[in-house]
Sequence to fold (269 residues):
Amino acid sequence: MTDQGFVKVVLVTGGSSGIGEAICKRLSAEGHRVFGTGRKVEAQPTGYRMVAMDITDQGSVQRGVEQVLAEAGRIDVVVNNAGLGIQGPAEDITPELAMQVLDTNVLGAHRVCRAVLPGMRERKRGLLVHITSLAANYGLPFRGFYSASKAALERYAEAQRMELSPFGVHVVTLQPGEYRTRIATGRLRPGSIGTAYAHAYERVMAVLGTSLHYSRDPDEVAVKVSQLIRQEAPYGVHYSAHGLQRLSVLLKKCLPTRLFERLMMRHYR
Ligand SMILES: NC(=O)c1ccc[n+]([C@@H]2O[C@H](COP(=O)([O-])OP(=O)(O)OC[C@H]3O[C@@H](n4cnc5c(N)ncnc54)[C@H](OP(=O)(O)O)[C@@H]3O)[C@@H](O)[C@H]2O)c1
Fold:
């Protein structure tokens, strides 16, 4: 049972893998009624329900949300977690490829909000947790469209927080550092890399492939979500990151741009 004996109905998009799956497992183990989503649902896990939902399709989102409402009667918390990565020199990424990432990471979260907000506003309570990324704070080399999508979601959430506060609906963002999930293998990438960028691109990707990156347990992010949903009125931007990754946010705020970017490129060398 949760604090105050209050079980929350939680919808976690992208519950089939990585961070979303860790959130589903932790929250359901804590006694919450959890619904995860995936584009294909083949088997039901123990402890929570999986619902089919493609967040790039408003009809699919609407059907998924209606299924949760039919089964649970309400949605208290939405964790907008489903997302995609993308890598490649910006010049080599076609607008069509970039659009897939923006459509998932930004408009996908928006579609889910549009489906759940009428119910939350009517009940005058609710919490939206948008999973963004530390990458929202700066342009990562060769992952510019990923940074752009997460920065867009941060600004979207900021505006949404002000619009929704009169309705008792809280909006927070949670920025993870790098965690051990399928995100790296599933990143979209251009068909070919222009030779002008090939050397620098391969070097950055080699650094990204080292154990330094993507080694931490995604349950750490789930712990943060659990803490957020226990709060009476959660607010603002939250982080789930350690060491140099966490420090990078502060450095970005304090250092001159040129120096920050030099340090970033040195890290990837
Ligand atoms: N791992 C990290 O280091 C890290 C760091 C910062 C932020 N994040 C963010 O954390 C979130 C989760 O990523 P992850 O690392 O756990 O990656 P992951 O293991 O690749 O999981 C991605 C999830 O998103 C779902 N998804 C993708 N496209 C979808 C769509 N069109 N409709 C519905 N669901 C879709 C996938 O579900 P199906 O494929 O089953 O449909 C999967 O459950 C993402 O927003 C990511 O940007 C991750």
Summary: The CA atoms of residues 130 and 173 lie 5 Å apart. The chain has one domain: 3-267. The domain at 3-267 is CATH 3.40.50.720 (Rossmann fold). The longest strand covers residues 169-176.
